[in-house]
Design a protein that fits this description.
The chain has 324 residues and is α+β, with helices and mostly antiparallel strands. It is 30% helix and 27% strand. The strands form 4 sheets. Strands 1-2-6-7-10-13-14-15 form an 8-stranded antiparallel sheet, covered by helices on one side. The longest helix is centred in the N-terminal third of the chain and has 22 residues, at 45-66. The chain is globular. The protein starts with 8 loop residues before the first helix and ends in a 7-residue tail after the last strand. The relative contact order is 0.16.
């Protein structure tokens, strides 16, 4: 069954059992600018802890490669040099940029990593937002079609000046999928990997489903909906993650590529699908499209499902999740 998003690790751990030789192991670290949480079952505690070590190490590796905050990262080098020359990058980064363009195409431009051409003008901790004139000046840089990719040489170039990219809307889901791949190769069959609002479930919870809940947009201790899930990707995007309010307007980190501003018609979107890369890419697109158009679009993909909480608190479901 396909379903829903923001995970409560404490609630999930209620189902754990703990013989001396086997147990549910878990760990939390701060990587990629967010909370990384791993929970898994292994018959051998030492091997289980080593598996978590491998996941965390790979999270840090991906962050070093794809962070737009780190000047030496390959993604930052694209932003620095991409308007002047083709920038050679690792195949892994090249492929994720290519995947991002795919999501731009299927979401009709609602998901677009070049939103960063405007997005960098916002500073949420300092309550800074661009003026109308600054948005107008920066908006021409927002267009995924101006990303020039050379598959033979794995280079990325911008077709115009003033462009930037940010993989924050897909890299965490990708990192969760990569983590599950590592765990599978190590023989682990039951695990959860979470990076902020993006999660990948590996198998079930040893005969029981993982219990997943969508938090209320205005109260982290309340849930809108909870569902039993296993072996899926889950992503939630909400206007309560990084934001500030000013003059009755909420400025949050989800930016509409067409306007350079935060949309106000939706509070949160949760997507369920085969991988966390898929669900994260879709969550931003559906958020920007809004409940009617977003659900209409995602229902064209039978493997995907969505739950949308709109500005009035109404909960919208795709067909696969709609209550009877």
């Amino acid at each position: 069954m396909k379903a829903v998003a923001h995970l409560f690790a404490a609630a999930l751990s209620l189902f754990a059992v703990s013989p001396a030789y086997a147990d549910w192991l878990h760990r939390e670290e701060s990587i990629m600018g967010t909370r990384i949480y791993v929970e898994l079952w292994h018959d051998d505690r030492i091997q289980g802890e080593a598996a978590i070590d491998a996941v965390m190490a790979n999270m840090r590796r991906i962050d070093e490669l794809m962070s737009h905050y780190k000047p030496a990262s390959q993604l930052s080098q694209i932003n620095i040099r991409g308007a002047v020359e083709p920038v050679a990058v690792d195949p892994e980064l090249f492929d994720l940029i290519k995947t991002s363009i795919h999501f731009s195409e299927i979401t009709e431009g609602a998901f677009d990593i070049t939103y960063a051409s405007v997005g960098y003008l916002y500073d949420y901790p300092r309550h800074v937002h661009p003026t109308d004139a600054e948005i107008r000046a920066a908006l021409p840089g927002v267009n995924y079609r101006n990303l020039q990719l050379d598959a033979e040489h794995h280079t990325v170039r911008f077709a115009r000046e003033g462009m930037r990219i940010d993989l924050g809307g897909i890299a965490k889901g990708y990192a969760c999928d990569q983590a599950v791949g590592i765990l599978k190769r190590l023989g682990i069959a039951h695990a959860m990997v979470m990076a902020g609002g993006d999660t990948r479930l590996l198998g079930d919870r040893r005969g029981r489903p993982w219990v997943v809940g969508i938090r209320h947009p205005d109260n982290k201790d309340r849930i809108v909906l909870s569902m039993p899930l296993s072996d899926v990707g889950i992503s939630t995007s909400g206007d309560y993650e990084r934001f500030f309010d000013e003059g009755g307007v909420r400025y949050h980190h989800i930016i509409d590529p067409k306007t350079g501003r935060s949309p106000s018609g939706v509070r949160s979107v949760t997507i369920i699908g085969p991988t966390a890369t898929d669900t994260e890419g879709w969550s931003k697109g559906v958020f920007i499209k809004g409940p009617v158009e977003g659900i209409r679009l995602i229902e064209q993909y039978p493997e995907m499902d969505a739950v949308v909480v709109d500005k009035d608190g109404k909960v919208w479901y795709s067909k696969g999740l709609a209550p009877p």
